[in-house]
Amino acid sequence: MGKQRILIVEDEAVAALEIREFLESKGYETGEPVDTANKVVEAVVRTRVDLILMDINLKSFVDGIDAAQRVQIMKDIPIIYLTAYPSSMIEKRALKTQPAAYLEKPVRMEKLLELIKQTLN
């Protein structure tokens, strides 16, 4: 099977790089992070994805929650949401998609790693 593959969906390049480097140092495969809903769908169609780390606010008209719904139509891939703009309305929308977790930024990397391990096992 090889390494477990995590798709990073993040529109802030520095945050995406930080998450990528951390996960790769822990033995996960990540590939290039993506920053729009369309790129999420393309990545899911094009490659094997075991888990998606999904930023909610993306550089596109469609946000991460809508992108997650599109993915769920195609494949059953667990999603962990990350958001820097928490609100009860956004959280309610996100939780309707039954994510593995919903985290507010800044995210503690060790907490994220713990959630990833729980989700993938």
Account of the protein in words:
- The chain has 121 residues and is of the alpha/beta class.
- It has one domain: Response regulator (Rossmann fold), CATH 3.40.50.
- The chain is 45% helix and 15% strand.
- It has a four-stranded parallel β-sheet with strand order 1-2-3-4, with helices on both faces.
- The mean pLDDT is 95.
Q: How do the helices and strands line up, and which of them pair or pack?
A:
Elements: E1 6-9, H1 13-25, H2 37-46, E2 51-55, H3 64-74, E3 79-83, H4 88-95, E4 101-104, H5 109-120
Parallel strand pairs: 1-2, 2-3, 3-4
Q: What percent of residues adopt helix (DSSP H or I)?
A: 40-55%
In CATH, what is the class?
Alpha Beta
Using only C-alpha atoms, the radius of gyration works out to 13 Å
Helices and strands, in order, run as EHHEHEHEH
CATH structural fold name? Rossmann fold
Kindly estimate the percentage of residues that lie in beta strands according to DSSP: 5-15%
Compute the separation of the termini in Å: 14 Å
Q: What would CATH call the architecture?
A: 3-Layer(aba) Sandwich
Shape: globular
The residue-averaged pLDDT reads: 95
Within CATH, the superfamily carries the name Response regulator
Secondary-structure class: alpha/beta
Number of helices: 5
Largest sheet: 4 strands, parallel
> Could you give the count of β-strands?
4
Structurally, the number of domains stands at: 1
Low-confidence stretches: none
Strand order of the largest sheet: 1-2-3-4
